[in-house]
Design a protein that fits this description.
CATH architecture of the largest domain: Alpha-Beta Barrel
CATH class of the largest domain: Alpha Beta
GO molecular function: alanine racemase activity
Cofactor: pyridoxal 5'-phosphate
Radius of gyration: 23 Å
Distance between the termini: 19 Å
Keywords: Isomerase, Pyridoxal phosphate
Enzyme class: isomerase
CATH topology of the largest domain: TIM Barrel
Catalytic activity: L-alanine = D-alanine
Number of strands: 19
Number of helices: 10
């Protein structure tokens, strides 16, 4: 029998979250961001689950766009990093992929070649990673038009949208608006997941919900359920051993935790080899028998220990929720000093993904 460590993917929750994004987008349309293997949930699985709701997808790179076509999905796909070599442009045109252009070398490839995929421009409104400076936008558009390339959209990315106290998103929005307003009517997009929860944020034509689709909060200090989001992944394992500890006994590598009372310790069959964060601190919660129990000791590659002293009736074989519908992945991320994006995308290949929909999981 295989090890009972798995990730349950809740397709109904995924659809709920996309519909919430679409609702919060107002008059704008929402494209589903499914990059990084659907944030660890499986790109084909996620895209198929949203196929009746989403009429546009966004990915980081060509390989991800091709995965959507191989899965039989025909919706337009936006490549947010564009292409990484000129020879990829004909394939993008043939497959109907929209290519983001953010740098001079990509512009030169289009001018020198024969391929004419649809193009969006990336505007650097202040994040200073990728994109043309606002003052360059009109000249770049003119060069593309002279080369016979149609610019169908423009986008930017916010640096501090997750911080409700920051004014940077409003400043970046204004910069982007001034740079793109003089262009011929095109699609414009600024809103990442966090922007959906910023009162008064301009949405323009398209929003790009990503992490919120998977049930995690895009806002600092907030958990997904507080924002009406539902967990799209439950990471689950089982208790494989119980042990009685006396006061003063230590657990695990480095003896980072020592009991102060008679303790029932449980070993759970999951560790950093599965993607659970090694740096999760003592006290990080897991869910067992409807009760929150604290992690004790250092997470090892294949196992971790929890304190079951206050969990009545715990026994070998009991399911353990590491994060999901009862234990927020946002809370676990905070305990590990990271963000939920990293946890979700770090779940390793040895953890099977099992689809759940229409409430067909009873725990």
């Amino acid at each position: 029998m295989p090890r009972q460590t798995l990730a349950r993917i809740h397709l109904d929750n995924l659809r709920h979250n996309f519909r919430l994004a679409r609702e919060r987008a107002g008059s704008a349309r929402a494209m589903a961001v499914v990059k990084a293997d659907g944030y660890g949930h499986g790109i084909e699985r996620v895209a198929r689950a949203l196929a009746n709701d989403a009429d546009h997808y966004a990915v980081a790179c060509l390989e991800e766009a091709q995965a959507l076509r191989q899965a039989g999905l025909t919706q337009p796909v936006l490549l947010m990093q564009g292409v990484h070599q000129a020879s990829d442009l004909p394939l993008c045109e043939a497959k109907g992929f929209t290519v983001v252009v953010h740098h001079e070398h990509q512009l030169a490839w289009l001018e020198a070649g024969d391929a004419r995929p649809a193009v969006w421009l990336k505007v650097n409104s202040g994040m200073n990673r990728l994109g043309f400076a606002p003052g360059e936008v009109r000249a770049v558009c003119q060069r593309l038009e002279s080369a016979g390339v149609t610019v169908t959209g423009a986008m930017t990315h916010f640096a501090c949208a997750d911080d409700e106290l920051s004014e940077r998103s409003a400043e970046q929005t204004a910069v982007f608006d001034r740079a793109t307003a003089p262009l011929a009517p095109i699609n414009r997009s600024v809103a990442n997941s966090a922007a959906h929860f910023r009162p008064g944020q301009a949405m323009f034509d398209w929003t790009r919900p990503g992490i919120m689709l998977y049930g995690s909060s895009p806002m600092l200090g907030r958990h997904g359920p507080e924002l009406g989001l539902k967990a799209a992944m439950t990471l689950e394992s089982r208790l494989i051993a119980l042990r009685q500890l006396s006061p003063g006994e230590a657990v695990g590598y480095g003896e980072t935790w020592r009991s102060t009372r008679p303790t029932v310790m449980g070993m759970v069959c999951i560790g950093y080899g599965d993607g659970y964060p090694r740096h999760a601190v003592n006290g990080t919660p897991v869910g067992i028998r409807g009760v929150r129990a604290p992690l004790i000791g250092r997470v090892s590659m294949d196992m971790l220990a929890v304190d079951l002293t206050d969990v009545d009736g715990a026994s070998v074989g009991d399911p353990v929720e590491l994060w999901g519908e009862n234990i927020s992945v946002d809370e676990v991320a905070a305990c590990a000093g990271t963000i939920s994006y990293e946890l979700l995308t770090n779940v390793t290949r040895r953890v099977p993904r099992v689809e759940v929909q229409d409430g067909d999981w009873n725990g």
